[in-house]
Amino acid sequence: MVEENWRQLLTFGAQGSQAMGAAVVKRFDEKIEKQAATLDPAGSKEFLAAVEEERDRLFDEYSSSPDALKKRLGVNVAAPASRNHSNRQGMGETVVKTAVRASIWAAIFALFR
Q: Would you say residue 106 has pLDDT above 60?
């Protein structure tokens, strides 16, 4: 479930659609909250913790090698004809990092409600 969310997020990020990437994260958060609400309090807490652990693992994997994660998840990203080696983040990378940070903070706030 978390990997599918990342697959969609990376696909939209690669296409440069920040709005679509944010929508993917919002829908995923809503879906997770609905599923957690159907569980008892202990099960809900365990479920949310497992989802966050998986999100963190994928974020770490993305941070260490974005291309490897994209390849593993089957995200097709056309390689540019020539690569500029700069320290600037691409639009896709910015979308992913922003969306992941937002979802992590949303989950943290949800735990303390």
A: yes
Burial label for 23, CB within 10 Å (0-12, 13-18, 19+), is: middle
CB-based contacts of 81, cutoff 8 Å, min separation 6: none
pTM of the model: 0.61
Q: Is 13 exposed, middle or buried (0-12, 13-18, 19+ CB in 10 A)?
A: buried
Largest CA distance in the chain: 53
First to last CA, the chain: 24
Question: Tokens at residue 96, please?
Answer: 């992913």
For 47-62, letters b (16+ CB in 10 Å) and e give: ebeebbeebeebbeeb
